[in-house]
Amino acid sequence: MDRASKRTELASFLRVRRSRLAPSSVGLPSGTRRRTPGLRREEVALLAGVGVSWYTWLEQGRDIHVSEGLLERLSQALDLDHVERSHLFELAQGRPPPPSRRSDAPTEVVSDMLQHAIDAHPNPVVVSTTRWDVLALNTPAEALWGDRRGMNSLCFMFEENPLQPRTPEASAHARNMVARFRYEAGRAADRAPFDQLASELGKRSPEFRALWDAHEVVATPEGAKVVHHPAVGDIELDHIVLLHVEPDGRMLRVTIYTPRPGVSAARARIAYAAHVTD
């Protein structure tokens, strides 16, 4: 969607949301001379702390600058939920909103439906935030990596066995991870948590620091890696990354791993079974 189309969509979105709010629901008198339902433009402007003319231009789809602070105030004035707030930011700024600071902000867990979906998958699945903090995984993933909930995937990659030389395949995977992380950091509404993690990890891992300083970016949401399992040996895995929007509006990364046919698939099945019987 181009900028003009987004401005038109934003104008319609604001008008519809305004029409659905009763004045009494936001502490305003209903009055007796309302010709249309919902709030008036001047009432939304008052609640959001902006001029009536400026808000009118926004509803007319004019090309004007919209700050993050104003969008937050509009979200509150129009009583938007998490998904609607995200939609507002996407239309106005072309990117997701920063993490919500409201008291009803979601906790860092996944929905029951998403957990059920990954539990039913026969191969490893890992769910993480866009900063790659692991939130959930299924039993096959635990069989290969252990319970990584609460860990960050970059930290796991660069701080596990840091003195062990990497194979060419592992080195390529590490380089790809850092390049994809930099790409996602550039797309984030709030980049500070990404840069903080990169700074801290760079102090602990010279390998990560060198790759981060190379400023490579990769957007391809797929790749390959080799996992060394102590009981069965090396398992070659292909993986793809899917983006999932939770009911509360959070964007999560769902990484699905598939063992390559033949030896790797057979070894993976053995590792899964051994983990279940432990």
Radius of gyration: 24 Å
Q: Order of strands across the biggest sheet?
A: 2-1-5-4-3
Helix content: 40-55%
**Poorly predicted segments:** 101-107
Shape: elongated
Major sheet summary line: 5 strands, antiparallel
The total tally of domains equals 2
Which architecture of the largest domain does the CATH hierarchy give at level 2? 2-Layer Sandwich
DSSP summary: helix tally: 12
The assigned structural class equals alpha+beta
The helix/strand series, from N terminus to C terminus, equals HHHHHHEEHHHHHEEEH
Ends apart, CA distance between termini: 52 Å
Strand content: 5-15%
Question: How much is the average pLDDT?
Answer: 87
Can you tell me about this structure?
This protein has helices spanning 3-19, 41-48, 52-59, 68-77, 82-93, 112-119, 139-145, 153-159, 168-187, 192-204, 206-213, 263-277, and strands at 125-129, 134-137, 222-229, 233-245, 251-259. It is α+β, with helices and mostly antiparallel strands and 278 residues long. The protein folds into two domains: 3-93, lambda repressor-like DNA-binding domains (434 Repressor (Amino-terminal Domain)); 112-277, Beta-Lactamase (2-Layer Sandwich). The protein has a five-stranded antiparallel β-sheet with strand order 2-1-5-4-3. Strand 4 (233-245) and strand 5 form a beta hairpin. The longest helix has 20 residues, at 168-187. The protein is elongated and about 75 Å long.
Nutshell version of this structure?
By secondary structure, the chain is α+β, with helices and mostly antiparallel strands. Helices cover 48% and strands 14% of the residues.
